[in-house]
Structure formats: structure tokens, C-alpha cells
Amino acid sequence: MKRLLVLAAMLPLAALAETGYYMVTTYDVEGQASIDYKYWNAHYKNSRNVASPEIGIGYGVTSRWYTEVTAQWVQFNGRQTRATGVEWQNDFLLTQGQYDVDVALHTLVERARRRDNGYYVEFGPVLQTQVWRTQLNFNLFFQREMDNGLQNETELAYQWQVKQRWKPWFAPGLQGFGEVGKWNDWLPSKQQSHRAGPALFGELGRVKYEAAYLFGKNSRRPANSFTMRVQYLF
């Protein structure tokens, strides 16, 4: 257990934040509640594998405001599981179909389980458009760790997605995620993290799912990552 705590402390909050592995999208879900299960893992070469299961409760408060509270855990090599913190996500739709591109504002606050690890904030624009049956997404997020006794910088992360709406229960696509370092002074390209790969999406009754397998760098180290998200809507 002590070794697990030391390893968890070595990982920055930003590396465990869910938006490095799951797309934020713009939808009107007023009055809809959901139980939201997420899971990702990263397989590093010559290093411990890291995974993070998460479970949350989401709700569409209005046609423009979605909110979700999520609890997170971390695992190393599929063994002991340790709670890492709780996050509160709020997304606000700024447009609703009147323009070619829908725009939303994404915000997230994550509180670490250990108070001396401080908390993490994230915010930025969410963009979505559709060309015939193809949905396109691109997001830019500003991220910062705070109140942890360190001198932290505001960093920049991005997400992109291409989804082909073939069938309601099966839609193939691609996803990509990355972190480039300080928002106004990017790291050299070799020190940045970029990962992308094939993704699947679908909806079966009250269940929505998505999954992706990503190749590239995770936390600046080469890794293959698997991500999945399953929502039960009610």
C-alpha cells in the first residue's frame, strides 16, 4: 500500500483528469439523468501499467447546462485500487443549431483525496459540427493545478473526434488527445504528448457506449491506451 501511495503521488492530477481520455461533446439533454461509468488504462513499455476507473452521476439541468459529479480511483498493474479524488464538471451550451458550428463552455474542478495535493481546474471551448452523417469535434482546454505548494503553470490540452453516424447502435470513428505544455510557451515536440486511434460509438435503448484504442504518448511516455465510457440514461 505504501508503494501505491508513493506512485499515485508521483502522478500529477492533470495526468489523471478524465478529459485526457474522454471527449466532451455538446448536446441538449435537459431533464435527463445518467449513471456514467468510465475506464482507461495505459500500457507503458518497461514500466507499470496505470488504470483509472471512474463513476459519476450526470444531469441536464436545462437545455444549455449539463452537470456531473464523478469519483475517481487509480490502479497499478491491475492490483490495489486507491481513491484519488472527486471532480465536478459543468458544461454550458452557448449556441444550439443556429450556426454551422455549435459552441459550448466546458468547466471542471477536481479535488484530490489528499488535501495537500490541492485541486485542479480546467476550462475551454467545445466545438461541434456535422457534415452529412459525419460529426466533427474539436476542443481546447486550459488546465492548472492549484493549492499544492508548487509553482504551477497553466497548460494547454486538446481533443478531436471524427464520428460517422452509420447506425444508432454502431458508429465508427477516430479520436485524438494531447497536451503541449504551457499554454503560451509550448514544450519541444519530443516532450509533448499526443495519442490517437480508432473509436466506436453506439446507443442501445437506455445505454450509450464509446470505446477507443489510442497510440502515442501518455504523460510524455510512449504508451498504448484503452478507454471506454458507458452511460445508463433515465
Q: How would you characterize this protein structure?
A:
The longest helix is centred in the N-terminal third of the chain and has 9 residues, at 2-10. It is globular, with a radius of gyration of 17 Å. The protein starts with a helix and ends with a strand. By secondary structure, the chain is mainly beta. The chain has helices at 2-10, 13-16, and strands spanning 33-44, 50-60, 65-76, 81-93, 102-112, 119-131, 134-146, 155-164, 171-182, 185-186, 193-204, 207-218, 221-233. It has two helices and 13 strands, in the order H-H-E-E-E-E-E-E-E-E-E-E-E-E-E. Helix content is 6%, strand content 62%. Strands 1-2-3-4-5-6-7-8-9-11-12-13 form a twelve-stranded antiparallel β-barrel. Strand 6 and strand 7 form a beta hairpin.
